[in-house]
Amino acid sequence: MADEARTLNAAVSRDGNPYGHQIIVTGIGPANAAAGAERMLAGRVDALVSWGTAGALVANLPPGKLLVYTDVVDASGTHRQCDPTWQRDIIHALRTTDVRTGSGYTSDHAITDPTQKAAIHTASRCVAVDMESAAIGAAAAAAGVRFVAVRAIVDPVGFAIPRIALDAVASNGTTRPWSVVTSLAHSPGDLPALLRLARWHRAALATLHQAAMLLRPAFATTGSRNERAKIA
Hints:
Low-confidence stretches: 223-228
Shape: globular
Largest sheet: 5 strands, mixed, barrel
Mean pLDDT: 85
Strand order of the largest sheet: 3-7-6-4-8
Radius of gyration: 17 Å
Strand content: 15-25%
Order of helices and strands: HHEEHEEEHEHEHEHHH
Structural class: alpha/beta
Oligomer: single chain
């Protein structure tokens, strides 16, 4: 989503001088993420980062908590490891924050219900869910480039996301405010949950911005200081 990408501004440039990173807003879901990753790989990038928000699958990940994935799992059960050295360097760069680690699950549809979240955790042992990371990881593995994923939690495990929140975002990641207005007219009782989710989303974005500030300028990449990490 565009608001998630904007949190990376500090990692991409400072005072108008680019660090050599690239950002692409892929849109929502594995297909969009895979297509975005392929566009970056066509430009001969040497690393991919899945950056954005996620939902918690365990109780100890409240809204706004920063998570660095150790590995990603897709809906077929395929596991892919994140680059362990790069992951370690990122965690070290974020040492002043309460950063957590764990496995991330990538779903091909939005996971909105606490029962669904519990079932995914039981089956996969993952601690958080998003809709892009495993697809980006698969593209990175196929191309032989390094991959990590950094996510900030929005919805806690026990929260049921109202349908109105899903209607508010298009598949390309842009918001649809008029859809929210129309939906609220039909379901005004969803307003408290929507406001709570919006507050948590702002907290997650603030966490991502702080992480980007700490990770600049080299985005904690290993190897040569001239190495260019690409961000998806």
